[in-house]
């Protein structure tokens, strides 16, 4: 039943008129029998019949039970006085009997009122609970009664659920068998996570608890935890993705104290386990403290920071990383933690250093080309000048050889120009030496040219 409860209870309300008829009929019968008993002198036994209508009236109409008992008692005393001619002993005995009847009516009415209040209270809990509640008959597993939440959780109407058996609702037979075995052996089952089948054929995760009742029934409660299970599964996937990521990842509280590191960061830092980082402040791992305040300020204003920093391994070895650090916010926009991702760029930095050295060597070679050409042409000019003092044939031969030397030097100059193009190509496409080498390179170019 899923209707609204009343003081008399749901089931009893449909029998109010019937019980009223029974109470009136039993009262009339009891009075008539007592009149006959008084006439034949056996009233002591017949008076006990008054308890039947009085108890029924006190139970079904507890607020009027005492008044009804007083009215019937008064009628009974009047009948006794009339039939016996007002004998004191008979009237006194009937009066005592009526006092007992009224007392019984008072006790029954009080208990009935208390029972009705408890029934209303527990019926309200049953009907308005956020958990789905059902009563199941244990031998045949027929669903006797469910509240609205139970039916709505599975997409049924209450009457549809009550037309099925509890066994039909399970999606996993192994869970169902384990549930009934535990219920039979222990008398209760608490917080069993299992799946139920909805009316549409879908499956939903439920948190199921149950307990046996004295009348060979058991009460069960279900709470839909499908969203929680999906969130847990999503968290497991994300946790696995983070823990197995090739990128080194750390999660910190808002004070930059490390609360989690993945395996890649443990390996990168040359550590053995996550426990070595528990509670450690990120700044203790940095080899360049001057970067700390810059990162703090940028993080507080922009929410993230990206750049190269120098870290220290567990053995104090320094190495370069590309650090991306950002604030993680909740759905209301408030920061809850800090996440940092590290990429080891030590090899890249070393490669850049090698490229830089190579470019510097090219610069030096270019300078040497220019200087060597000047050094060759200066003596060559002197030789050509002196050759004019020699006889004609000798002078011509010397000048011819000097021109050949000048041609070779010109080829060297062309090689120098090609080296200039190579240097510019490396600087442009390999991003090496643009800042520090170009500054000195400009002076060198001026010297060469």
Automatic annotation (TrEMBL):
Transmembrane region(s): 18-37, 43-61, 68-85, 91-113
Keywords, ordered alphabetically: Kinase, Membrane, Phosphoprotein, Transferase, Transmembrane, Transmembrane helix
Domain of life of the native organism: Archaea
MF term (GO), any: phosphorelay sensor kinase activity
Catalytic activity reported: ATP + protein L-histidine = ADP + protein N-phospho-L-histidine
EC number: 2.7.13.3
Keyword Glycoprotein: no
Stretches assigned to the PAC domain: 305-357
Record's keyword annotation contains Ion transport: no
InterPro entries according to UniProt: HisK_dim/P_dom, PAC, PAS, PAS-assoc_C, PAS-like_dom_sf, Sensor_kinase/Photoreceptor
NCBIfam families listed in its UniProt record: sensory_box
Protein name: histidine kinase
